[in-house]
Structure to design on (271 residues):
């Protein structure tokens, strides 16, 4: 982070679904897996000059805390939190870079209905401003479940929020090519009710603000072809502070490392 002329600070946040924890191999246990892809993913994130990161599918099992600390050290992050998921070990890892202008006040984890995975709320003070960094992973199937999650997330509508998540469904302005796509999958992922609900409650999609249509999924998982891959903006960063947005991007240089692309957004924050 660096000071801006008006005494605000620049903060960069990102969301990234690692795909199977960034691990590969035939072993059934996490210590039997090859973590070279995870190391490459961390290298990619390190180049983005980030202050806040949310990672989905941190599927590190009983090695979770060890890997969390190792990733934090490699990223230069001194705050880190691993949130257990309700669903098949798809835990969420959150990182922050505290400093003179950024303090972690507390962290809360929301579990149970309607959250299929979980939702994390990291309460921050940034240049004197209260900010809530929400990190989520919406239901992988079931439009109704995703809608319920969006409705519940709206409880934060009156806060200063940065909401980074794998939303598992299209943005309001997505219009992907569905040729050759399983119609059941297309109908599920293109259900825009959750996105519209969040917009109605004052959560602005930064990709839409910046008029960036680049999809974050649809390029295929590592070592897989693009067959039956629906290209849309699954991974998004939303905010109730649209006036503070100063940048946005989808990282295209790591398409062989996950079936999702890292997404980052930049803010000028302060009182």
């Amino acid at each position: 982070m660096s000071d801006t002329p008006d005494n605000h600070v620049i903060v960069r946040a990102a969301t990234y679904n690692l795909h199977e924890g960034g691990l590969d191999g035939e072993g059934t246990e996490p210590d039997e897996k090859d973590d070279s892809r995870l190391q490459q993913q961390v290298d990619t994130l390190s180049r983005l000059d980030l202050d806040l990161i949310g990672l989905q599918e941190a599927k590190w099992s009983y090695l979770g805390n060890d890997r969390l600390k190792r990733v934090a050290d490699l990223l230069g992050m001194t705050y880190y939190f691993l949130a257990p998921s309700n669903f098949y070990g798809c835990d969420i890892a959150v990182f922050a870079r505290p400093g003179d202008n950024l303090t972690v006040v507390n962290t809360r984890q929301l579990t149970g209905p309607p959250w299929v995975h979980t939702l994390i709320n990291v309460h921050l003070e940034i240049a004197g401003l209260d900010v809530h960094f929400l990190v989520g992973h919406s239901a992988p199937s079931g439009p109704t479940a995703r809608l319920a999650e969006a409705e519940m997330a709206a409880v934060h509508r009156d806060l200063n929020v940065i909401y980074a998540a794998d939303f598992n469904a299209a943005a309001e302005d997505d219009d992907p090519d569905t040729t050759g796509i399983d119609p059941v999958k297309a109908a599920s992922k293109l259900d825009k009710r959750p996105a519209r609900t969040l917009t109605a409650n004052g959560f602005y999609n930064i990709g839409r603000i910046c008029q960036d249509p680049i999809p974050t999924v649809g390029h295929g998982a590592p070592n897989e072809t693009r067959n039956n891959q629906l290209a849309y903006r699954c991974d998004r960063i939303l905010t109730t502070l649209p006036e503070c947005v100063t940048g946005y991007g989808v990282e295209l240089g790591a398409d062989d490392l996950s079936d999702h692309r890292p997404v980052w957004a930049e803010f000028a924050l302060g009182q």
Summary: The radius of gyration is 17 Å. Residues 23 and 35 are 5 Å apart (CA to CA). Residues 64-75 form the longest helix (12 residues). The chain is about 20% helix and 30% strand.
